[in-house]
Amino acid sequence: MIYLFDKFNSISENEYTRLYNLLPASRKRKADMRTGIDKKICILEYFILKDLLKFENYPDFKYTDEGKPFLENFHFSIAHADNVLCLAIENNDCGVDIEKVAEFNAKIAKYILNEGEQNEVEKAKQKDVALTKFFTQKEATTKCLGIKLNCDLKNLVDNKKFKYIFKKYKNYIICECKKKI
Question: Which H or E run includes 165?
Fold first, then answer.
């Protein structure tokens, strides 16, 4: 299930301060590494997730060696682009990514796409959308696996092991990746 939030400007600075003060230690450290809208997103993503999972207390995230946040017995993934936040919550491992559709860049396409994917993009009516779709798919897969983007992106997508769900929101592409059971 994917949840979207883009109402950051409707929340007062006093409310952000109040929420920041309620954060557990690891989340405060994460928020303190950011500024502006990124800091607000970091604060709010915690409380949106807490609300969606119906936690009474304020659980602290744990982090994998690769930096993926997790809570015991809950599978979720968080991503944001500009001021749009998306969260995926599933019964098993999942990853989500959101990217604003950007102008097509052949150099990036060649770097991240395998030959079959490059052919699909070349045939697409909107190459920019097609490339963004592949990029979000690959990043969502890395998040599902709990690995960093510095892996072999060209051969990462596996439709036999993963289910991919795409959504379009305004000028953004969202992809959720979840392991097939």
Answer: strand 162-169
